[in-house]
């Protein structure tokens, strides 16, 4: 299976000026763990995860005055739709993160998480079991 088979094509995008509370509300409403941060001034991409928000709050920072741009990961590893799920999982393991932004020709196509990879593997195992069974 490939990243394109497991990625979510509905991606929450926010700007660097979103407060952490606003970002958390958007992620919570969509029941997702990460938002792609697009900075229109630099054309840069980053990712803000639930862990980033948690680390800030745990450090005693105010989520109403802290901005996504100050807490995102900007040194992002990107996947392509043609990567295997094993390649995506290996990149996540090497980098110590749980989400990859999926790009094709510089365009954000989706996002894939560890949860997505596990879901695909379970689905594949069930399908194999039905065929063998």
TrEMBL record:
SUPFAM superfamilies: CBS-domain pair (SSF54631)
Keyword presence, Kinase: yes
Membrane spanning residue stretches: none
SMART domains: CBS
PROSITE patterns: CBS
Protein biosynthesis in keyword set: no
Domain CBS residues, every copy: 7-65, 72-129
Domain of life: Bacteria
UniProt keyword list: CBS domain, Kinase, Transferase
Gene Ontology molecular function, alphabetical: kinase activity
InterPro entries: CBS_dom, CBS_dom_sf, Diverse_CBS-Domain
Gene3D superfamilies xrefs: CBS-domain (3.10.580.10)
PANTHER family named in the record: CBS DOMAIN-CONTAINING PROTEIN, CBS DOMAIN-CONTAINING PROTEIN CBSX3, MITOCHONDRIAL
Protein name as catalogued: Histidine kinase
UniProt organism field: Embleya hyalina
């Amino acid at each position: 299976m490939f990243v394109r088979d497991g990625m979510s094509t509905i991606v929450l995008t926010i700007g660097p000026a979103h407060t952490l509370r606003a970002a958390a509300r958007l992620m919570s409403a969509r029941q997702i763990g990460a938002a792609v941060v697009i900075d229109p001034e630099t054309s840069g991409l980053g990712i803000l995860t639930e862990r980033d928000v948690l680390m800030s709050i745990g450090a005693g920072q105010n989520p109403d005055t802290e901005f996504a741009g100050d807490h995102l990961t900007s040194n992002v590893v990107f996947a392509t739709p043609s990567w295997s799920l094993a390649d995506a999982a290996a990149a996540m393991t090497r980098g110590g993160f749980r989400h990859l932004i999926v790009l094709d020709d510089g365009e954000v196509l989706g996002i894939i998480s560890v949860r997505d990879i596990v879901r695909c593997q379970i689905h594949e195992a069930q399908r194999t079991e039905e065929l063998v069974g």
